[in-house]
Amino acid sequence: MNGDIRELYQEMIMDHNKNPRNFRAVKDANRNAEGYNPLCGDHFKVSLLMDGDVIKDIGFEGAGCAISKASASMMTAALKGKTRREAKALFEEVHKMLSRKIGEPCDVSKVGKLATLAGVCEFPARVKCASLAWHTMCEALDPTGKQVTTE
Fold it and tell me: Is 95 exposed, middle or buried (0-12, 13-18, 19+ CB in 10 A)?
């Protein structure tokens, strides 16, 4: 990761950690899920208000490291107004971006501002932190009744 991209990555993580977007329970949510990372203690609840197939509102609550909180914040900002299909497609792209091998090329054209999370792959232990909220959102979209865990 070059210096400019690393600086942008750090700025975005710190901004979304200190000023998380949609850090709240969604009033009248009709979908909820809970996720937990037992290795570091990240623990989030994601709530959705679905209007048909569209995410009308999305929020998250809980506590976690800067990367997990920032990723959850960025996720909620990116998914509000998206359809279920669009949300799942974005999850797939973000998951590929986060879990790729260091140095492996990555097409970030489909993830917009979420591309700033691409640097997480350089810290393999932090991939689970960055992906926890995303997996929790998927559980909220298609509930199995299970708590999401990174293990």
Answer: middle
Q: How far is CA 27 from each of CA 8, 36, 44, 81, 88, rounded to the nearest angstrom?
A: 33, 22, 17, 16, 23
pLDDT digits (tens, 9 = 90+) for 43-79: 999 999 999 999 999 999 999 999 999 999 999 999 9
Token pair of 43 as six digits? 């623990």
Beta-ladder partners of 60: 23, 46
**d(C-alpha 17, C-alpha 139), whole Å:** 23
CA distance 121 to 99: 6
Please name which of 42, 44, 54 lies closest in space to residue 128, comparing C-alpha atoms.
42
Predicted confidence band of residue 5 (pLDDT cuts 50, 70, 90): low
Q: What CATH number does residue 24 fall under?
A: 3.90.1010.10
Confidence (pTM): 0.92
Q: Domains in the chain: how many in total?
A: 1
Which of these, 85, 36, 35, 87, lies nearest to 58 by C-alpha position?
87
